[in-house]
Amino acid sequence: MGEDEIVRLFNAKIKLERKQYKKRVLQLAPERIYQRAYQINCRENIAETLLEKSSEMKTDVLRCLLVLPNVIQFFYARWMGKGDSFQLELENSMDTGIKEIGLLLEQEETEAA
3-25 vs 37-53: helix axis angle to the nearest 10? Predict the structure, then answer.
Protein backbone atom coordinates (compact mmCIF):
# COMPACT_ATOMS: atom_id res chain seq x y z
CA MET A 1 0.00 0.00 0.00
CA GLY A 2 1.46 3.35 -1.04
CA GLU A 3 1.92 6.38 1.19
CA ASP A 4 -0.78 8.39 -0.60
CA GLU A 5 -3.28 5.58 -0.14
CA ILE A 6 -2.49 5.35 3.57
CA VAL A 7 -3.06 9.10 3.93
CA ARG A 8 -6.39 8.78 2.08
CA LEU A 9 -7.47 5.88 4.31
CA PHE A 10 -6.50 7.77 7.44
CA ASN A 11 -8.41 10.87 6.33
CA ALA A 12 -11.44 8.72 5.53
CA LYS A 13 -11.22 7.16 9.00
CA ILE A 14 -11.12 10.60 10.68
CA LYS A 15 -14.05 11.84 8.60
CA LEU A 16 -16.06 8.72 9.49
CA GLU A 17 -15.32 9.09 13.21
CA ARG A 18 -16.36 12.73 12.98
CA LYS A 19 -19.60 11.86 11.18
CA GLN A 20 -20.50 9.12 13.69
CA TYR A 21 -19.85 11.44 16.65
CA LYS A 22 -21.94 14.21 15.10
CA LYS A 23 -24.81 11.78 14.52
CA ARG A 24 -24.70 10.69 18.19
CA VAL A 25 -24.52 14.27 19.46
CA LEU A 26 -27.42 15.46 17.32
CA GLN A 27 -29.65 12.84 18.95
CA LEU A 28 -29.16 14.53 22.31
CA ALA A 29 -31.44 17.14 23.81
CA PRO A 30 -30.41 20.75 23.09
CA GLU A 31 -29.38 21.29 26.73
CA ARG A 32 -27.03 18.27 26.61
CA ILE A 33 -25.54 19.55 23.36
CA TYR A 34 -24.97 22.93 24.97
CA GLN A 35 -23.30 21.24 27.95
CA ARG A 36 -20.93 19.46 25.56
CA ALA A 37 -20.07 22.53 23.49
CA TYR A 38 -16.45 22.61 24.66
CA GLN A 39 -15.99 18.90 23.98
CA ILE A 40 -17.56 19.24 20.55
CA ASN A 41 -15.33 22.18 19.70
CA CYS A 42 -12.19 20.40 20.89
CA ARG A 43 -13.01 17.25 18.96
CA GLU A 44 -13.65 19.28 15.79
CA ASN A 45 -10.31 21.06 16.21
CA ILE A 46 -8.54 17.75 16.77
CA ALA A 47 -10.14 16.24 13.66
CA GLU A 48 -9.20 19.26 11.54
CA THR A 49 -5.64 19.19 12.83
CA LEU A 50 -5.31 15.49 12.10
CA LEU A 51 -6.62 15.99 8.56
CA GLU A 52 -4.23 18.88 7.97
CA LYS A 53 -1.21 17.06 9.38
CA SER A 54 -1.87 13.65 7.86
CA SER A 55 0.15 14.34 4.73
CA GLU A 56 3.14 15.27 6.92
CA MET A 57 2.94 12.24 9.23
CA LYS A 58 5.28 9.30 8.87
CA THR A 59 3.73 6.26 7.23
CA ASP A 60 4.38 4.10 10.31
CA VAL A 61 2.51 6.58 12.51
CA LEU A 62 -0.42 6.65 10.10
CA ARG A 63 -0.52 2.84 10.02
CA CYS A 64 -0.64 2.78 13.81
CA LEU A 65 -3.41 5.39 13.95
CA LEU A 66 -5.38 3.49 11.32
CA VAL A 67 -5.77 0.51 13.65
CA LEU A 68 -6.33 2.58 16.79
CA PRO A 69 -10.05 2.77 17.54
CA ASN A 70 -11.49 6.23 18.12
CA VAL A 71 -8.44 8.31 17.20
CA ILE A 72 -10.21 11.60 17.85
CA GLN A 73 -11.32 10.43 21.30
CA PHE A 74 -7.77 9.25 22.02
CA PHE A 75 -6.36 12.72 21.36
CA TYR A 76 -9.25 14.42 23.16
CA ALA A 77 -8.62 12.30 26.28
CA ARG A 78 -4.91 13.16 26.11
CA TRP A 79 -5.77 16.86 25.84
CA MET A 80 -8.11 16.69 28.84
CA GLY A 81 -5.44 14.83 30.81
CA LYS A 82 -2.93 17.61 30.18
CA GLY A 83 -5.11 20.26 31.76
CA ASP A 84 -6.72 22.99 29.76
CA SER A 85 -4.66 26.13 29.34
CA PHE A 86 -7.55 27.95 27.66
CA GLN A 87 -8.97 29.32 30.92
CA LEU A 88 -5.57 30.60 32.06
CA GLU A 89 -4.90 32.23 28.68
CA LEU A 90 -8.35 33.84 28.72
CA GLU A 91 -7.84 35.22 32.22
CA ASN A 92 -4.39 36.57 31.32
CA SER A 93 -5.82 38.27 28.23
CA MET A 94 -8.65 39.78 30.26
CA ASP A 95 -6.24 41.00 32.96
CA THR A 96 -4.13 42.68 30.30
CA GLY A 97 -7.20 44.29 28.73
CA ILE A 98 -8.44 45.54 32.10
CA LYS A 99 -5.02 47.06 32.86
CA GLU A 100 -4.90 48.73 29.45
CA ILE A 101 -8.35 50.24 29.97
CA GLY A 102 -7.25 51.52 33.39
CA LEU A 103 -4.13 53.09 31.86
CA LEU A 104 -6.20 54.76 29.14
CA LEU A 105 -8.57 56.19 31.74
CA GLU A 106 -5.65 57.48 33.81
CA GLN A 107 -4.15 59.05 30.69
CA GLU A 108 -7.45 60.76 29.84
CA GLU A 109 -7.74 62.09 33.42
CA THR A 110 -4.18 63.42 33.26
CA GLU A 111 -4.79 65.11 29.91
CA ALA A 112 -8.07 66.60 31.13
CA ALA A 113 -6.44 68.11 34.22
Answer: 170
